[in-house]
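README, section 4: Worked example with a bound small molecule

Sections 1 through 3 covered apo chains. Here we extend the same pipeline to holo records, where the ligand is supplied as SMILES alongside the sequence. The molecule in this example is flavin-adenine dinucleotide. Nothing else about the input changes; the structure line simply encodes the ligand pose together with the chain.
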Amino acid sequence: MTTVVWFRDDLRIADHPALAAAADDPGGVVCVYVLDEASAGIRPLGGAARWWLHHSLTALAASLAELGATLVLRRGPAGEEVPRVVAEAGADRVLWNRRYGGAEREVDAALKRELRDAGLTADSLPGGLLHEPWTITTKEGGPYRVYSPFWRACLAAPPPARPLDAPDTLRDAAGPVRSDRLDDWGLLPTRPDWAGGLAETWQPGEVAALERLETFLDERVDDYADDRDVPSIDATSNLSPHLRWGELSPRTVWHRATEPGRASAAFLGELGWREFAWHTLFHAPDLAERNLDRRFDAFEWAEPDAELLGAWQRGETGFPLVDAGMRELWRTGAMHNRVRMVTASFLTKNLLTDWRVGERWFWDTLVDADQASNPFNWQWVAGCGADAAPYFRVFNPLLQEKKFDPEGRYVGRWAPDSAGRMPIVELPFTRERALAAYARIRGS
Ligand SMILES: Cc1cc2nc3c(=O)[nH]c(=O)nc-3n(C[C@H](O)[C@H](O)[C@H](O)COP(=O)(O)OP(=O)(O)OC[C@H]3O[C@@H](n4cnc5c(N)ncnc54)[C@H](O)[C@@H]3O)c2cc1C
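The generated complex, written as structure tokens:
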């Protein structure tokens, strides 16, 4: 038997259930990644994500080579490319780890049917979440709409499966299979090459991801609960892009973080938010398009204003914490969580801009942009998401700055000129305008 292992958002060799299951196949294994920008409903990657993918695939190919296997690269609709790889390899089994987005599930289900109809074995395995979304349900059997009871239910469920070891060795069966050259995919920016700051900030790949996890657990997890909201302190794990690309499995993070002696409850709770976002996407596949709170379908967003939007994107609003966050994002492909909330609130509440506009900008610029966490959090900040708060939250960016960057360290690093700029809007007026727009839909 020869097995094709189809890699997707799981660019790792440890705790990779599909790879582990294929490792002992006497006919060998063909490892393949398909760049699918063509299947219906698959969202094309943003620029920062393409940069990360290039480097993460390079790292994965090196790890597989050490085990004796080749990473085959193909571009096109997965429903066509995977069967071609199977035919070229003469394989009789295809394995992959599950995805949870709506369009992805349709692609996978159709392919599984087609392969099975052709007499092959085709199986999908869990590996991208702590719990499968259909296992965490309310008493009535539906999905949770609020985080706290959701997370309590996760904590009461059987613990996530223990992570699997990476295979010691693989028997490569990719010989007869054609592969693209990664450089030909043009994932890296060239003219202009805006990725210098990304390269200075990040090292994509599983080896770097595991190192980051260990450093965080050894040096920072004990202070995480106290310091996680202060953007000038390097207090958080910075694991989000590694989790996004599956260079690290959440099960690995969970089991390392729950070893005795670690004060990790607050950190695990954040993994819980990731889990909640993905479970929400599973039940609401149009999360990036449609308001979870349908009352917001009637919300009166302001007319699009290219000048105001451009000022927000460039970090030229005259509100220092907003400007610092937007510039950090542009330079590094990331932004501290507290500042993500403030910048998103400023766009949706003070500029009264539809959250989907901001979501798309983050999608293009974040290295950790994922199809669950990004729209989930944008909806949460906009007020139409999965939120238990009974009121309409409008962050004041000046008060947030006073509270979370009192000495101006974060602002001084990213936007020292911002305080001297003329603010592009008036806070009291725009706050009242947002509250009035909400009042008009509240009872609907
Ligand atoms: C408007 C907005 C958009 C966002 N878009 C994304 C996104 O596209 N991808 C993404 O991974 N996170 C997103 N987040 C959540 C959060 O900002 C990042 O996960 C966090 O800043 C990553 O830093 P860290 O790895 O140091 O997190 P830590 O504080 O160390 O947390 C550990 C892990 O928990 C997860 N996590 C933490 N907070 C959240 C959260 N609110 N929602 C979901 N998962 C969370 C991440 O995987 C993170 O790596 C967004 C938040 C906002 C407000």
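What to look for in the output: The longest strand covers residues 29-35. The longest helix spans residues 47-67.

Section 5 describes how to batch many such records.
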